[in-house]
Amino acid sequence: MVEEKKRITSDERDTNRLEAFSDGVIAVAITLLVLNIKIPEVPSPDKLLDERHLRDFLLNQWPILFAFVTSFLTIGIMWLNHHRVFKHIKRTDTGLLMLNLLLLLTIVFVPVPTALVAPYIIRFDQHIAAIVYSGTFLLMALCFNTLWRYASYHNRLLDKDADQHAVRAISRQFSFGPLLYLIAFGIAWLNGPASVLFQFLLALFFALPGRPARIDQQA
């Protein structure tokens, strides 16, 4: 009994370390997004922009702000779901650690395609930036699903007392993510702005308050 308690404590310590490391990496990625937002250069305090030029400058920043909000929400939802699944995952192994690193790799890369796609949000004749942007989100969704499927397969790394109804509910919910981001990826080949808008709507959909609670209740 004592040995089992020691093992459980050690397992929980390992998952806590993994969560803490993941939280740190996600925090860095979500912070880097703000670096894409520019402010007007002011040569000196006595050469400020007048209100009209400042207003025009700020209005011209809307594509960057739109891309920022979309990516911020998407990474934020990924963090919320990561926290949610690790309420059930209580053990780690090398496979889980590697899959989690792969997930973090895609998350920390998000600021790059965000900066790339922002200038092209209003360009209907340009597709490459939107393809890279949507492809990154699709890869992120696939990595997250693979991590959860790996951990939950036959309760491999889950808490031995994990609620199986809740586990199945999470699996059903997460199965829609890659499909929806695959649709966004397909749209990007036809219409870049529409693809980014679709991913913004996905971020809002997954961010709806109370959604996880409703699923848990149904379970």
Radius of gyration: 21 Å
Order of helices and strands: HHHHHHHHH
Q: pLDDT below 50 for ≥5 consecutive residues: which ranges?
A: 210-219
| Biggest sheet features | none
Named at the architecture level, the CATH assignment is Up-down Bundle
Please estimate the helix content: over 70%
Our estimate of the beta-strand percent is under 5%
Estimate nothing, just give the exact number of structural domains. Answer: 1
What distance lies between the first and last C-alpha atoms, to the nearest angstrom? 32 Å
- Shape assignment: elongated
Classify the fold: give the CATH topology.
Answer: I/LWEQ domain
- Number of beta strands: 0
Roughly what is the average pLDDT, rounded to an integer? 86
Helix and strand composition category: mainly alpha
Give me the number of helical elements: 9
The oligomerization state is single chain
CATH class: Mainly Alpha
